[in-house]
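Data deposition worksheet. Section B asks for the primary sequence of the deposited chain exactly as it was used as input, without tags or linkers unless they were present during the calculation. Section C holds the resulting structure in token form. Section D is free text for depositor observations; keep each observation to a single sentence. Incomplete worksheets are returned to the depositor.
Section A, Depositor: J.P.
Section B:
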Amino acid sequence: MDVFEVLKAISKRKRILTESGVTECEASSKAELDISEEYHISLLDIKKLNR
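Section C:
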């Protein structure tokens, strides 16, 4: 999985969460955590990518 696929997955998850009523800040954090766990990528690396 390359960087762009990870960012796309985070963006998609964030959009789904915001559409369900979660605030954008919470959705961003939750999306990063979900993708980190799902693809076994460290959360620190995900946060660096998503800056």
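Section D:
The radius of gyration is 10 Å.
The chain has a mean pLDDT of 94.
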